[in-house]
Amino acid sequence: MRFSYFPGCTDRSSSMEYGLSTEEVFRVLGVELVEVEDWNCCGAAATHSLNRLLSLCLPARIMSKVLLSGLTSLVVPCAGCFSNLKRVEYVLRNEQRDRRVIEEIVGFRYDPSLEILALLDVVVNRVGLERVYERVRRSLKGLRVACYYGCALVRHPKVTRFDDPENPQSMDRLMRVLGAEPVEWSYKVDCCGADLAMTYGSMVRQMVGRIVFMAREAGAQAMVTSCGLCQMNLEMRQQLGLPVFYFTELMGVAFDIGQRERWWGKHLISPRPLLESLGLG
Amino acid sequence: MGKGLKVIEESSSFLEEVRGRSGERVELCYQCMKCTAGCPTAPYMDIKPNQLIRMIQMGRRGEVLGSGAIWFCVYCQTCGTRCPNEIHIGVLMDALREVALEEGVGVKERRIHLFHEAFIRSVRRGGRAHEVTMLMDYVLRSGDWMRDSLGSGLRLFFKGKFPLFPSVVKAREEIRRIFERCGEGE
């Protein structure tokens, strides 16, 4: 199995443990990730907030590089990047006039056979949970987690076409296969406000505080995410000290991957005490 | 011409303009208020999303374009997913910000606007976002020292998560051309 892989800007900076754990986990699964040649930023929230055309052309350039590589499935770890790429895919497929403008500016021909997939989707639905289960060396038994999907992975459903927009289950199923216990809670798709974190910190602290509080109320010992921006924001702006994992990190613990000590050093809230208390250190 | 008649003329044109620009059928809204009920930033908005839609229908152009609400929308798409009339308010908000900027309407939330601009400049420079130079750019232009984030920002820096040297695209010419063609040249 072979996929084109778009790491995104934060993979080299604020969410480097997401990138590191993804590479290790996929190596263990025997799935090859081929980095997109000379990729650029997807434009993030800032671009579509101010300039629609630019927000369509930046992701389109990434797609053009994938098409040149000959691969037809692009995997995206960050939920924010995923959402931007899916939005452009939707426009290219449904708006002929926009499509011509984008193709002309970026200088490529869009091929609708190119599919854009979230990393979580690939793990659960392409690699498959059976294959994940075969690699589990240490069950995460006793670990209660709140799976947090945030906004970008599941909304808008007609654009992302992944899981249920109000009560998604993919990550919950994955956690069960690893031996952990996902809690039922009502805030799994509530926005954490990361886009305003730098400009309205106090407001975002309230948004994050409510989400983390509800996770703990539901009995979770930690949260699990699939987005570089959510993870950083949830760690930075909470007061409860609840560790926040990337789902690939918990796969790494269950697969007993040696390099994981390095990931924990990148967290603002160290997950070590929790893992050690469960004999998973 | 009476004042009332003028208001009606203005209102129909603003509704048409917003619909043409965003592709969203704003006239379908019947005020169920699901959008505002589920909006995570509505508590901080001066005009709530359902009110904003009504004001577009009424043609209250200046108030809509000059509102803080259009800047507080984070495009989480909760409203658009739940709207029974399939009005995608996130797309609408993007379009309203573009119109406000084109017409030079005073930006109510200057910091949010400057932050997004700093981000776009960062991508224009290297093809990829680079946190350190982007944040410096934002601080210098806004005078906002982000006291809320400074402490944890520094901790992340010492953990090596904000590299000093940017990762850049090799084919910078391609990036420059896209920015120029999209009206974001130097």
Chain pair with largest interface: A-B, 55 and 61 residues
Low-pLDDT runs of 5+ residues of chain B are: none
Distance, first to last CA of chain B: 46 Å
* Strand numbers in spatial order across the main sheet of chain A: 2-1-3-4
* DSSP helical segment count of chain B: 11
CATH class of the largest domain in chain A: Alpha Beta
Counting helices, strands and paired strands, the structural category of chain A is alpha/beta
User: Based on DSSP secondary structure assignment, what is the total number of beta strands of chain A?
Assistant: 8
Number of domains of chain A: 2
> In percent, how helical is the residue content of chain B?
55-70%
Tell me the series of helices and strands of chain B, N- to C-terminal: HHHHHHHHHHH
Gyration radius of chain A, rounded? 18 Å
- Mean of all residue-level pLDDT scores of chain B: 92
Structure at a glance:
Chain A has 281 residues and is α/β, with parallel strands linked by helices. Chain A contains 13 helices and 8 strands.
Explain this structure to me?
The complex is a heterodimer of chains A (281) and B (186). Chain A is of the alpha/beta class. Chain A folds into 2 domains: 2-118, Glutathione S-transferase Yfyf (Class Pi), Chain A, domain 2; 137-277, Rossmann fold (3-Layer(aba) Sandwich), CATH 3.40.50.11810. Chain A is built from 13 helices and 8 strands. Chain A has helices at 16-29, 44-50, 52-69, 79-94, 96-106, 119-135, 157-160, 170-177, 201-217, 228-236, 247-254, 260-264, 272-277; strands at 2-5, 32-35, 73-76, 115-118, 144-147, 181-182, 222-225, 244-246. Chain A has a 4-stranded parallel β-sheet with strand order 2-1-3-4, with helices on both faces. In chain A, α1 packs across α11, α2 packs across α3 and α3 (52-69) packs across α4. Chain B is built from 11 helices and no strands. Chain B has 186 residues and is an all-alpha fold. At the A-B interface, α2, α3 and α9 of A face α6, α7, α8, α9 and α10 of B.
